[in-house]
Each structure stands twice: as C-alpha cells, then as structure tokens.
C-alpha cells in the first residue's frame, strides 16, 4: 500500500484540471506540468506502494520535457512502472481539499477517468472532497491539496 499528498497554488489564467478532467473555475492550478494535484497525489501513492520514490524524482520540474505535460501521460508511466514491478491496483481512496469549486458534481466523470487509467472498475475508486472551513491558504482559495491511498496486489 502507499499514500500520497500534493498541493498546488491557484492562480488566474490557468485551467483547473483535476483527475484528468477540466473543471470550470475562475482560477487554475499553477505548476510545471498541468498541475493536476489529484493525479499527483495518486501517483505519489502508487510510487510509494511499489517503493519507487516520488513524482519529483521521476518527473523533476527542472526538466523541460515535463513543462506543460498532461499528468494523464505521467500517471500512465507510473502505472506502467507498477505493472513492471508485478502489481495491480485493488482500490484507491482520494481526498481533495478545496474551498471552491464544489467537486461533487464532477465525482462521476473523475472516477470514470481514473478507473479507466488504472484498469479497474469505477466502484473501487473512491473520491471525497472537503473544504478548510475558510481557514488558511486553502480556505482562502489560494491552493488545492489532495491526499491518496492505494492498495495493490501482486500479479
Ligand atoms: Mg504536484
């Protein structure tokens, strides 16, 4: 099993991409890649489960190859790595911490996307979201964070 965490700043003039889905919002996440904080937390969990470090090691933000890259491409590489290590996904549980926008209307689309990427039924991909009750930088709408736990099985 593995757990992952990530946080990105919300800034104007960027798309908000979460779980490979573009979500309408007046700000988006800033980062070297598309800054999909949900997929980054999930990738960190997958890498943790197979004992292969973190996304910063595999996809350094100093490497121009990863500038503006879709995190869907990156998680594809991480999933390839987990398959090569002899593991498959049992289930994943993901929490997004965002004051806004409301994510519940997008749960279905994100779960379907993640399930397809991980080659599992949507029922084993659980998605939750919470606010920070207005507290701190996430509560002030300056950032979004995500946490993920994954369980893998051999073969
Ligand atoms: Mg990140």
Describe the protein in words.
With 155 residues, the protein is α+β, with helices and mostly antiparallel strands. The protein has helices at 37-49, 55-58, 71-84, 107-118, 136-139; strands at 2-11, 17-18, 21-22, 28-29, 87-97, 125-130, 143-154. The strands form two sheets. Strands 4-1-7-5-6 form a five-stranded mixed sheet. The two termini are 14 Å apart. The mean pLDDT is 96. Magnesium ion binds next to strand 1 and helix 1.
Give the topology.
Elements: E1 2-11, E2 17-18, E3 21-22, E4 28-29, H1 37-49, H2 55-58, H3 71-84, E5 87-97, H4 107-118, E6 125-130, H5 136-139, E7 143-154
Parallel strand pairs: 5-6
Antiparallel strand pairs: 1-4, 1-7, 2-3, 5-7
Helix pairs in contact: 1-3
Magnesium ion binds at residues 6, 8, 31, 37, 40.
Percentage of residues assigned to helices:
25-40%
First and last CA, distance:
14 Å
- What share of residues are in beta strands? 25-35%
Helix/sheet category: alpha+beta
Number of helices: 5
Features:
155 residues, 5-stranded mixed sheet, 30% helix, binds magnesium ion
